[in-house]
Amino acid sequence: MHFDPWNPEFVAHPYGVYAGLRRERPVSFFEPTGQWLIARHADVNALLRDRRLGRSYLHLATHAEFGRPDDPEFQEPFWRVIRAGMLDVEPPVHTRLRRLVSKAFTPRMVEALRPKIAQIAGGLVDRFVERGGGDLIAEVAEPLPVTVIAEMLGVPEADRHLLRPWSADICGMYELNPSVEAQHTAVRAASEFSDYLIGLARARRADPGDDLISALAQVTDEGDTLTEEELVGTCVLLLNAGHEATVNVTGNGWWSLFRNPAELERLRADHGLLPTAIEELMRWDTPLQMFERWVLEDISVGGVDIPRGSEVALLFGSANRDPEVFDDPDRLDVGRADNPHISFGAGIHFCLGAPLARIELAESFGALLRRAPKMELAAEPEWGPGYIIRGLRSLEVGIS
Ligand code: HEM
User: Binning pLDDT at 50, 70 and 90, where does residue 221 land?
Assistant: First the structure.
């Protein structure tokens, strides 16, 4: 098999292909997407931190100046929302947006949310156990992070069912070469989501509550504030980034444990291993397999010259199995001590929500270990269609 992100076989088993790339072609041009694939941990890590690359080039050049086609006109509502969030901009705009939002995501701030997160996770797991199991993804993995981020932002309970479909439709655009239909679906979702948030943000500006949207709508001590477009872009980003990957770490993580029963038993016997186990599950089956960067100035990677205007695809899933960095990398070791995995990224775009994600995962895995000590796989799961955002369609488990 070779690198083929549209082939379900590859999506299910990418790690052997990555090993070949790391050994033989660590920097290689992939014709179907016109990207340079970067397979080694050292290169992925270095490029994420290298300011000669960026998630966008639009702060420096137009599409035409960068030799790229203009965005199709119908996509305008999508990009207006997405490019107003910090993930798709570079400094100085990125620095300003991240500063305004990061106050709510310091480890101390999110630690204060732990009791609430534990309560939500406990409630979901209790109901799941009472029913004797079912689809762990639909019943526990999805509702937990969606509820947490919706509560943080102050999205009313009655509207929360709208969030997951909007987010999933928007994320369709992030896969490689999305179909025209997927593009239209993403644009429609971005418009609807944006209209919804504009209404909510206006209501909160007029009548602030004790929630993040109200806080983000205020002027800060330094006299700076988010524009309405930035506020909407930030909320869309937080709602999407705030749960897509967490859902997949939960689903992929439990499936990894079922496939490694000795490690599952080790964790069941010693819940103190939970912090290292969560990091290891994020490494061993990486939820976000690839992130892209634009090359803003000529660079050379592993002796290969990559000119300005190129796009690199950083293979996180491959970096996380690199034997140069991880002992016995294909082995799942829930006690792995030295684990510099790259699943939260690195550099200026390093995941803002990492402390929050770690608490959510600790609370949901912890509650399941305690309350469903004999949980077992009930059916062989299937991978969803996504490669970049890679997760199972469902994970059916039984609880005796
Ligand atoms: C296990 C779950 C998660 C994983 C694996 C994950 C992973 C990532 C990665 C890899 C990036 C950087 C992307 C890049 O460099 O191109 C990122 C950025 C980001 N993540 Fe997460 N994330 C997770 C959970 C969360 C949560 C719970 C939140 C917030 C509530 C969040 C908010 C963000 C934001 C706002 C950014 C953009 C940061 C910036 O551009 O400066 N993430 N995440």
Answer: low
Rounded to the nearest angstrom, the distance between the alpha carbon of 353 and the centre of ligand 1 is 6
Tell me the HSE value of 161 on the side-chain side, using a 13 A CA sphere. 1
Condensed to tens digits (0 to 9), the pLDDT of residues 78-128 reads 999 999 999 999 999 999 999 999 988 888 889 999 999 999 999 999 999
**108: buried, middle or exposed (CB in 10 Å: 19+, 13-18, 0-12)?**
exposed
Q: How far is the CA of 85 from the centre of ligand 1 (A)?
A: 12
Position 237, amino acid: L
**What does DSSP assign to residue 348?**
G
- Range with the lowest mean pLDDT among 97-111, 122-136, 208-222, 233-247? 208-222
Q: What gap in Å lies between CA 119 and CA 123, rounded to an integer?
A: 6
* Ligand 1 pocket test, candidate residues 51, 55, 351, most atoms within 8 A of CB: 351
Using alpha carbons, select from 346, 341, 353, 372 the residue that is nearest to residue 277: 341
Q: Which residue in 122, 65, 393, 352 sits closest to 248, CA to CA? A: 393
3-state secondary structure of 85: coil
Q: What's the DSSP call for residue 30?
A: E
